[in-house]
Amino acid sequence: MKPNSKILIIAGSDSSGGAGIQADIKTVTSLGSYAMTAITAVTTQNTTGVLSILSIPSKEISKQIEFTSKDIKPDAIKIGMLHSVGVINSVIKSLTKIKIKKIVLDPVMVAKGGAKLIDNKSINILKNKLLKKVSLITPNIPETEMLTDTKINSKEDMICAANILLNLGAKNVLIKGGHLKGATMFDIFLNKKEISIFKNKKINTKNTHGTGCTLSSAIATYYSCGKTLKKSCEMAIKYVNYAIGTRPGYGKGHGPINHLNTINIKKKFR
């Protein structure tokens, strides 16, 4: 099968395989597209937490983005962990050079176990510079609160916060509502022309490591194949929900989801 599209992933590595670059590659591949990478950091972590973060030099990140894109031009870009001012500025410069229009930003700020992955100066650069250059930003509730300096306790609060992000320069916003209490999960897609609320039954499990990375990569993949952003969000949410529902149950903490839920192995490969 020939890949449907080409996705460049700019993100950090997760040694446990549940999130980051590893989750992104699995997602893009399982949805039938071709994954390329620019690694921004190497994290040592497992399902119980993050032990350490090793930053990749900004120049090397730019080289990965530009040299890879010069040979194989991406149809879309997914951006994940950008943890320093230097890294964010380098990525912005490289994005300006390679001129890819379809860009999905997952502002990775807090690990599933609660560890902070980005400093305050980086948050300001992300808000003031990078936000305006991407097609869609996909923060969860803690990340949205950090970006907007608000407290979110309801879907109405989510809508208000999404509007703040639009006023900061975001073109489209998808706020993920998994941190809200209740049996129903609300994900809210918003731009200056429309609002859509995706409503799903919340799956009661702690094994949701890498759901944000997976969702944003799935959105980028569907978007690169010609779906609208709204439809891409809808389809990606379904993919992630099914991946959570078929989770393998690995690890002692926040375990991974099942990225391979779309793949049927042919008999000749069994």
Q: What would a concise description of this structure say?
A:
With 270 residues, this protein is an alpha/beta fold.
Fourth-tier CATH superfamily name? Ribokinase
Task: Could you tell me the CATH topology label.
Answer: UDP-N-acetylmuramoyl-L-alanine:D-glutamate ligase
Count of discrete structural domains: 1
Count of alpha/pi helices = 8
Number of extended strands:
9
N-end to C-end Cα span: 18 Å
- Beta-strand residue fraction: 15-25%
What's the shape? globular
Q: SS-based structural class?
A: alpha/beta
> Measured on Cα atoms, how large is the radius of gyration?
17 Å
Main beta sheet strand tally, sense and closure = 6 strands, mixed
Q: Which strand order does the major sheet show?
A: 3-2-1-4-5-6
- Please name the CATH architecture: 3-Layer(aba) Sandwich
Q: What integer is the average pLDDT?
A: 92
Which ranges are low-confidence, i.e. pLDDT below 50, for 5 or more consecutive residues?
A: none
User: What percent of residues adopt helix (DSSP H or I)?
Assistant: 25-40%
Give the C-level CATH assignment. Answer: Alpha Beta
Give the ordered list of helices and strands: EHEEHEHEHEHHEEEHH
What do you see in this structure?
This protein has 270 residues and is of the alpha/beta class. The chain has one domain (6-262): Ribokinase (UDP-N-acetylmuramoyl-L-alanine:D-glutamate ligase), CATH 3.40.1190.20. 37% of the residues lie in helices and 20% in strands. It has 8 helices and 9 strands. The strands form 2 sheets. The chain has a 6-stranded mixed β-sheet with strand order 3-2-1-4-5-6. A hairpin with a 2-residue loop joins strand 2 (34-46) and strand 3. It is globular, with a radius of gyration of 17 Å. The model has no long low-confidence stretch (mean pLDDT 92).
